[in-house]
Amino acid sequence: MHFTLQQLKLFEAVSRHASYTRAAEEMHLTQPAVSIQLKRLEEQVGLPLFEHVGKKIFPTVAGKTMYQASCDILARVSELKNSVETLKGEVKGPLQLAVVTTSKYFMPHLLGMFLTKYPDVEPKLVFTNRAKVMQRLHNNEDDFVVMGQIPEDDHLETYPFLENILVVAAHPDHPLANTKQINLDEIVGERFLMREQGSGTRLVFDRLLEEKSLKLEPYMELGSSEAIKQGVMAGLGLAMLSLHSLRLELAAKKLVVLDVEGFPVKRRWFAVHLKGRKLSLVARTFLDFILTESHIILEHDKK
Ligand code: PGA
User: Fold this and answer.
1) How many angstroms does the Cα of residue 10 sit away from the middle of ligand 1?
2) Does domain 164-266 have CATH number 3.40.190.10?
3) What would the mean pLDDT of 133-149 be, rounded to a whole number?
């Protein structure tokens, strides 16, 4: 069988997305270019790899076998690339991370600082919610992931770094804006803008309410902390948010932090990977960097 690594990469992407179009987007190619390469691959294998039903594609038995093999081969090639870079002692090449959405307020800054030191690193950051980050973690898809709420799991290696301070934010004209020591059961009657299920921020809030046997029906559920913050500034309701995300708005007095029982909730951010995963030199260097340098973000936050 004569096929190229590029064909395997395309096949892997098409199988993962179950779509030629999405795979083409990911690989920055046109859809016909992907189809041609996959046709050639099928010719080499001598069996169809996908079955076309209406507009959908499904892997054939040969396709499933091929998918397993391509994942193995591509993982080995990536390991090989990393080992070679490690042998050369050069901090360069791919850095693949999945990070929870809320970390967008500090991860790009940390990465920016790192890249000024190591400009030959090729970073790829996937921002998604906690549930999806967990899924990627268990599939061993990234060098490591960054998340706030780590599960109890013996198979994980976890590295705490920055503090994550969670507060209840409100519009400055909110009736509770100047109230001291607001009881938690007092605010559950308020309109709350909440993150979607699967979000780590949401998980912390739900657990806090559960501990106090309180129930809160979200007034609105939004899939991003940024959208929630805009909603609070528009006076739509209150929200529990990470202090990292509020720095500019608090300074501009567009938002205030309420003095609520049990708040601020202090958590940490963690870098996490599966136990036994061998980190590449790039990943190891970036991990060390965030463990030792992330305090700069807090100093930045205070400015
Ligand atoms: P989230 O995660 O962005 O999914 O809310 C935050 C966290 O893990 O604390």
Assistant:
1) 31
2) yes
3) 92
